[in-house]
Amino acid sequence: SEKLVEIRNLQTHYFTEDGVVKAVDGVDLYINRGETLGVVGESGCGKSVTSLSIMRLIPNPPGKIVGGEILFEGEDLLKKSEAEMRKIRGNEISMIFQEPMTSLNPVYTIGDQIAEAIELHQGLSHKEAIEKAIEMLRLVGIPLPEQRVKEYPHQLSGGMRQRVMIAMALSCNPKLLIADEPTTALDVTIQAQILELMKKLKKELGMAIMLITHDLGVVAEMCERVVVMYAGKVVEEADAVALFQNPLHPYTEGLLKSIPRLDQEVEKLHVIEGAVPNPLNLPEGCRFHPRCPVATDRCRAEQPTLQQVAPGRKVACFLAEERLMKGVTA
Ligand code: SF4
Ligand code: MG
Predict the structure, then answer these.
(1) What is the pLDDT of residues 160-170, one digit of tens each?
(2) What is the pTM of this model?
(3) Does the beta carbon of 286 sit less than 6 angstroms from any atom of ligand 1?
(4) Is pLDDT at 267 greater than 90 in this prediction?
(5) Are 65 and 85 in contact (CB under 8 A)?
(6) Does the beta carbon of 295 sit less than 6 angstroms from any atom of ligand 1?
(7) Could you tell which of 230, 235, 292 is best to mutate to test the pocket of ligand 1, judged by most ligand atoms within 8 Å of the CB?
């Protein structure tokens, strides 16, 4: 299927007093129209910075996109003016975050906030935009939307606020929704409801979703394809089914083993040993080698690059082909 977004060799760095943090260090990935791509990794791996780079929302200073391309429908977003980006943000590409309270303005009503985005991008009158806001709140399953538009963010529960954020993000019918840990702050039941809602809306509205999460359980529930990131780089890219059946990168395998399963006793739960490397002092060779259970001398000296090992399958590990042949199972 056709690519909506194509990121090529993206490099986003942060210039700190202690040195340069290469938060995103040569990332390649793409998102097809209408698909849900999961972007997975521990915090600090560069997944949020990648998504903020797409939106051109990297705070500068200290951050800066120093290289690469971000093609959206074939046009490089990195070459757009700030005025052009304002037309794209919230209109062609929308974003929702983990904690909706920080993105909602406490002093405006829910209705006014959704209406503002609609007025800005669709040129509707305020009255028409409020009508549309009510329609959007109904779409995301908020009861009594005619009353809710008059309420303020603090009057809603966390789950309802996240529904409002989704309503706002989708009000201009974006082609891409970036969702950064959208359910992490919610309790398990509400989390399931929000994921269900996102799935349903994706089907109805046909947008693509870039779902950023540290939770592979969420990925299994939601995504067609997955990109796994580690220390600023993509280490594996695969169809979700293939990834879960046969993780090729040892880091992916570690992540999969750390998903709690109902048939597993808690004390047997595997956690990847060691910590994410200090971004100011990355290990030589493969960045995962200090934590990798199958590392060799070559891994300590040489950095593997992302290589295609099967159709739709890329891995940055010297052992990938061998592991593909053997059929490693998590
Ligand atoms: Fe492990 Fe070596 Fe593969 Fe890196 S390249 S993941 S250290 S086996
Ligand atoms: Mg993050």
Answers:
(1) 998 999 999 99
(2) 0.93
(3) yes
(4) no
(5) no
(6) yes
(7) 292
Atom number of ligand 1 nearest to Cα 287? 4
Nearest to residue 292, comparing CAs of 39, 283, 327, 28? 283
Residue 56's Cα: distance from chain center in Å? 15
Strands (DSSP E) found in the chain: 3-16, 19-32, 36-40, 63-72, 75-76, 93-96, 176-180, 208-213, 225-230, 233-239, 307-310, 313-315
SS3 31: strand
ipTM passes above 0.90 = yes
CA of 287 to the centre of ligand 1 (A): 8
Task: With cut-offs at 50, 70 and 90, classify the pLDDT of residue 330.
Answer: very low
Q: Is 235 in the pocket of ligand 1 (CB under 6 A)?
A: no
Q: Which atom of ligand 1 is nearest to the CA of 235?
A: 6
What's the mean pLDDT in 245-266? Answer: 81
Strands (E), 109-242: 176-180, 208-213, 225-230, 233-239
| Ligand 1 contact, 244 CB (< 6 A) | no
97-146 pLDDT, tens digit per residue, is 877 656 788 999 999 999 988 888 888 999 999 999 999 999 999 999 99
110 close to ligand 1 (CB < 6 Angstrom): no
Residue 134 exposed, middle or buried by CB count within 10 Å (0-12, 13-18, 19+) = buried
Question: Which ligand is in closest contact with the Cα of 283?
Answer: 1
213: three-class secondary structure by DSSP: strand
Distance 285 CA to ligand 1 centre (A): 9
